[in-house]
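User: Please predict the structure of the protein below. I'd like the answer in structure-token form so I can feed it into my own downstream comparison script.

Assistant: Understood. Taking the following sequence of 372 residues as input:
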Amino acid sequence: MSGLHGPGERPRGGFSQLTSGLSLAEAASWWDLETTFHDTCSYGPPPRPAWEALQTSLDQWRHGLTPWQSWAESVQAARESFGLMVGISPERVATGAAVSQMLAPVAAAVPDGGTVLVPDIEFTSAVFPFAVHADRGVTVRTAPMASLVEAIDEQTSLVSFSAAQSATGEVADIVAITQRAREVGAVTVLDTTQAAGWLPVRATDVDFLTVAAYKWLCAPRGTAFLTAHADLAVRHPLFAARLKPLAAGWYAGQPGAHYGMPLRLAEDMRAFDISPAWHSWVGTAVALDVLNAVGVERIHQHNVALANSFRASLGLEASNSAIASVSVSEAAQRRMREAGIRFSVMDGRARFSFHLYNTQDDVERVLARIRG
């Protein structure tokens, strides 16, 4: 683990355990996969340093060896690392447990009678938080991703969409969607759960960006982020005035806000934090360090190249996505499972994910089983 501090040695006040850049080959050697794994869309296995840090924290918990504050430091470390990855200051990043939980206060700020536009196959965690407000007149309208820009009109209050679609891997035209939304004064919410970690995204391109970290960020399940643009109150003053941390607790408060009134929340996005699952954040912080050390741009090039090699061998057109969704016979699916190849089936199609720990040899193994 050259270039890394050992578990528990994360510098106080700093966020990066890595002291130098990391090549794709070096990084890939830190994954201990015992199968051909093409299912990052479902979950991302951890790099060894993240796994070891997590196990150390669990052992400390088991034996009562350390105060909880040492684990909680990883929340701020992860906040800073994620801000670095998506190009926004850590003060604009909130931490939580799941996308739907992070979007709950955003959905509550949609005005009575407002209209929310989503792609027609958008994952429900970015849809249901808005749909539950039907009792106050909030309408959720859908449109195909390919025509989402044209569907944004003067009645649109908010547009919620994914940078990469879960079922198909289709990559959204973020610039075109946000440009049209700003023309009509609509708030933009970008779910990067199937994108952050391999697709270069900028939090400053949208009003809100969210992610569940257990997929392409290779973190333990139970950690998530939400960013808010610094100009939100300028562009959408009424919306910003309605935006409240609905799950505010002690962790969302100012230092020392442990008991009683008055209300004293953090003055930045930390006001939207929920009390953290300590050990999950220990693993998350180190996993983000590894990905940042490699660089999302390099990971993007590697992943898309593998996905396009896979597509080309099946006679399919090239794409800009690291996710390939293809029709595969039941017999071929059975052959892949018998060979220990991990993939998933969504919306009736086999879904293959290509991440930094995958190689061209992995692609060939899958193709061989598909062809029989």
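That's the full token string. The longest helix spans residues 69-86.
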